[in-house]
User: Fold this.
Amino acid sequence: MPALCRNCLSQIDPAPRCPHCNSPRVIAHDELFALSIAHMDCDAFYASVEKRENPDLADKPVIIGGGRRGVVSTACYVARIRGVRSAMPMFKALQLCPDAVVIKPRGSLYAKVSKEIRAMMNDLTPAIEPLSLDEAFIDLTGTARLHGAPPAVMLARLIKRMESELGISGSIGLSHNKFLAKIASDLDKPRGFAVIGQAETLDFLEPKPVRLIWGVGGSTGQALERAGIRTFADLRRWDKQDLHARFGNMGDRLWHLARGQDHRRVSPDSPIKSISHETTFDTDTSDPDILDGHIWRLAEKVADRAKARDLAGRVVVLKLKRADHSAISRRISLPDPTQMTDRLYRTAHDLFAQVGKQGPYRLIGVGLSDLRPAAEADRSGDLLDPQARKRAEAERATDTIRSRFGKDAIVKGRALR
Amino acid sequence: MKFSIERGALLKAVGQAQSVVERRNTIPILANVLIEAEGEGVSFRATDLDIEVVDKAVAHVERAGATTVSAVTLHEIVRKLPDGALVTLTDDSATGRLTVEAGRSNFSLATLPKEDFPVMASSEYSSNFAAPAPVLRRLFDKSKFAISTEETRYYLNGVYMHVSDGEGGRVLRCVATDGHRLARIDADLPEGAETMPGVIVPRKTVGELRKLLDDDDVQIAVSVSETKVRFATPDITLTSKVIDGTFPDYTRVIPQGNSRKLEVDAAEFAKAVDRVATVSSERSRAVKLALDEDRLILSVNAPDAGAAEEELAVAYADERLEIGFNAKYLLEIASQVDRENAVFLFNSAGDPTLMREGNDTSAVYVVMPMRV
Assistant:
């Protein structure tokens, strides 16, 4: 059986410790050097970056998240031992771990580190599909000759480089398709390296809950449960036709996943599908003035990102969460795509007026989807709103000023509410 | 209830009724048509709670009565019966079925009680007048293309019918706009319409109304109140709620000072726009109009898909101008012109453009340009 020492990267015979460096970090698997689809997931990425920036934090529980009312975005492993999890409300996290250091997320810093990691992955292969700042699929099929080493070795080397050069650790899942690679990367965290081979795929999945499937969360999960499907074993008992009849296209995909089959390619430039921003309030509010201020600020953030990427969207989405966590979502299609804060704000504002007084709300979000190239955006004016052109010109002028003197160089009064 | 009726007459009456019925609705009775037989005739009534249509047809009534039955099913049956057949409809209150017989065909349909059928509350109409079918046909046909589908500006989802001042005095005017283009169509004010309140006639009503207007010789009785509008021929009565909203002040949208005049054969122009737009793969296809002395160059440049250009001989005497439009909007506006040349009046590449037929100001169109 082939084996690999993740410490000194030597290919060895299976043994509890590496004969060369005596490290216990040995991984052995029949298909270890044959598999080539991987998922790399950084360990507590935001928290690791913060700890790297401030070594005093190294042994302290660190939670990344916004405000007293926000949710945990990332918790370091010290905090996780105390029971803190991501997406947990901050007040609950602080109950479990009162001495935690709470840090507001610093997006641009994380993006910079993420870029450095991506550059390292790029040294291995161009077939990288980033899922977010801290995780990506890597397809190393056919690179063994080029690198003079099988994919598993190159992946172990990547993680080693990330640790030594960037001070960030990550976990690898290695398998024969994206679906299984993503599951594998979660099996052995942190600093993990897990392998799911062809041979054990079915046995491995059999007892696992179907909620393991990415995208099978709330409503799909409930629908599956109503159909009596909890585990992959349950799922595998269903005929393809029956699954299709009950779940549509998702059913076809479920049928394949039940058998550990996933034919999606690792596609380097999967286009962005939507741009959105949301914010959770410190205290629930139904004050239309306050909410309106948030709608403006969120619209501005979304428009900024759209402009930065030369994109525009035709569908505007408004998302609200009530105090009891029930969500309201409203969307509307514009006659032509936009990337202007003004149009985005006005449309989201109209949607908010339709939703009306169902508050108080704890969260509000604004998004743009059905994305298109910016060249198609905002090309025709509105007969009934002759001022729109002036406002658009003002916005373009504001953008120029902000790009030279910083985001806060010029601000709408509305944004200060 | 029992009556016999000629298949053609039945098809026409049921056809009008079933088109009002909403295909997707959750209230079973709204899928039905109310059939009432009495004296010399039968009436067919259908509603979606916003629009109600009543169609009367002559029939041989043996036994008066009323029932309701699925409008779509009855329409499908009658449509498939042979031309010229005599159809007998018999209502059996014991079994709750309606029997439809024609020749050797026999159908038995489930019914719902007539008492459950919602009948639109009658209201007081503040204005009643008669207008020839061709007049209304022109007013609505030439304006309906500009009706908006935007939900947030619901008050644009119809044609604004009102009394206004035209060049030659008071007129009956229809206006529709979606913010990108606008149509303003005038007709001589019919006697009795002076006091009519302005109403926004919903898109669906405009579509249903069109079916009443095919016959040139028919006078349409129009009744208008603040909340409802009614159009009636001797056989068909169409009653509709109007959109509860304020139509925006369109007068300030219509450019007054546009001086650069282009005169072009509308049909040639439309064909050329259609041809050059073919190469664009975008959702909103932009066409560039480059105007020079008596020359118009239409062009489309889609970097990914290709480019197209076509030259037209036109009448244009002003300085050079380049302006872009959504091809679809140009086509729709150009196709409204049926007698004379299309006259476009431009200001600048960023300002609304006005279009009319020759010097006729009873139909004017405004279209917003597009950045190209």
